[in-house]
Structure formats: C-alpha cells, structure tokens
Amino acid sequence: MQESPVAETRLSAKDVYTRLREMILNFEIYPGSRVTETELAEYFGVSRTPIRSALQRLEAEGYLTVLPKQGCFIRNLDIDDLSKYYQVRKTLEQLSLQLANTYMSDTALSELAAAWDPARQVDRSDDPEEMEARDETFHLALAEGGGNLILRNYLADVNRHLRIVRRLGFTRSERIDQTYDDHYRICQSLLRRDLAEAQTLMRDHIQHVEQFVKTITLTQLAINRNHSFPAKKTT
User: Fold this and answer.
1) CA angle, residues 182, 155, 111, in degrees to nearest 5
2) E-strand spans in the chain?
3) What angle, 0 to 180 degrees and rounded to 10, lies between the N-to-C axes of helices 128-145 and 149-166?
4) If exposure means fewest CB atoms within 10 Å of the residue's CB, which of 33, 94, 103, 186 is most exposed?
5) In whole angstroms, how far apart are CA 127 and each of 22, 40, 102, 163, 171?
6) 90 in Cβ contact with 159 (< 8 Å)
7) What is the pLDDT of residues 115-148, one digit of tens each?
8) What residue ranges of the chain are covered by domains with CATH 1.10.10.10?
9) 3-state SS of the chain: helix, strand, coil percent to 5?
10) All residues at 6 or more sequence positions from 12 whose CB lies less than 8 Å from its CB, including other chains
C-alpha cells in the first residue's frame, strides 16, 4: 500500500484541510468515494481531532458530506448537473449585465476594466485557485454594480456549486490570457453602453469556459477512475 507523503510530519487541522482539499480538487480521492476519520488519521499521521475539524470545514464548503456512523462521502460530480448550473449561471449573468449597464458608473467600470487590462495583467497568477477567485470576484462585482444583491447572492451560490471544476479553467496559461481579454472587452462594451455586445461576449466567455472545464474534468476522472484512497503503509 502507498505510504503517506505527510505521515512523518506533525500536521495541524489547517494543514490537513489544505492537503485534503487539494486531493479532492485534483481527484486524488475519487468523487463519490467514501473515507473514514480513522483512514484519514492513519494517512496523515495525526489524531482524529484535526481530521474532524478539517472535515467539518470541507463539509461547510460543499466538498463532502459527513454521515454519522457511515463515514465521509466526497461530493460526486455529475456532468449533467454541471451543465444545468452553467445554464442558470448564463441566465443570471445576462441580467447582471443588464443592470450593470443601467446603474454602474463609468468610474467603477473603468476601474474594473483596468484590473483586467490584457496589456498589464494586474495580479496575474499561475495558481488556478487564485485566478478562479479573481474571476469569481469580477463577475460578482458586475452583479453588485447593478445594485441587486439578491441576484449577486444567487450568482455566488451557483458559483459555489461550480467551484470544484472552475479552477480547472485556469490550469493553462492561454486560458488565463483569454480571461483577461474577455473581461476587459466586456467592460469596454459596458462603458460604451452596448448591452447587446456585452451580453454576447459574456455568453461566449462562459460557454468556452464550460466546454474547457468539462473536457478536463472528464479526462481527470478517467485517469483516476481506478485510484483508491492511498492508505498509510503498515509494517
């Protein structure tokens, strides 16, 4: 059995959370699979207390479900469900742009555009999670700029369901470049108050991202299909 790469180090609950979340996001623990506190404690070389703390945080963030006396079940991935969430997201984003076009000031739009200027690429990172967070912030900023916080909260909830795969959209440099370009062009369209163009750009942007992350997700799932949770080696 494979030996844990972290078993020899004393880990905190935060360390366990970070590593376990990474394993889930990278499909090192296959979606839908079951693990127990005992297995995780053995693998990480810690007591069950930091394991329990990490699992509670991951459950609150939607990465897994903890069932008493049954174990922890990693959130399953259903491509059809992802498509439905993307469908809802596209609709919400169109309304978000409509409101931003009406109520968001030129100053606010110019500042947002400057943050995504392809020529400057402010705060660009090669870390997929950092870029995913920045991307999400951009879309929520447009929703907030339109003044409808209920819409903003609905969009944030949809994003939460897609977060496990959205980061995959930033695993390649060219996709990061494209995101800067798409966001900048959307802002420029709104500055011209050309709603139709902005909505077309947004729809195309989301469709391209959706197709890209679905392809990578299916590839990763195929690679890890027969990969079971790596237990700590016993002597």
Assistant:
1) 45
2) 34-35, 64-67, 71-74
3) 160
4) 103
5) 12, 26, 34, 14, 8
6) no
7) 999 999 999 999 998 999 999 999 999 999 999 9
8) 13-76
9) 65, 5, 30
10) 50
- Give the closest residue to 67 by CA, choosing from 25, 37, 44: 37
Which token pair is 102? 């009406």
Tell whether domain 13-76 is in CATH 1.10.10.10. Answer: yes
From-to residues of CATH 1.20.120.530 in the chain: 79-220
Between CA 145 and CA 152 the distance in angstroms is 9
3-state secondary structure of 87: helix
Whether the CB-CB separation of 175 and 215 falls below 8 Å is answered with no
Res 8: pLDDT: 45
pTM, whole model, 2 decimals? Answer: 0.78
What's the one-letter identity of residue 131?
M
Find out if CATH 3.40.50.740 is the number for domain 79-220: no
Pull the structure tokens for residue 59.
């459950």
Residue type, 72: C
Helices (H), the chain: 13-25, 37-44, 48-60, 79-103, 106-115, 128-145, 149-166, 173-191, 195-223
Facing residues of 35 across strands? 72
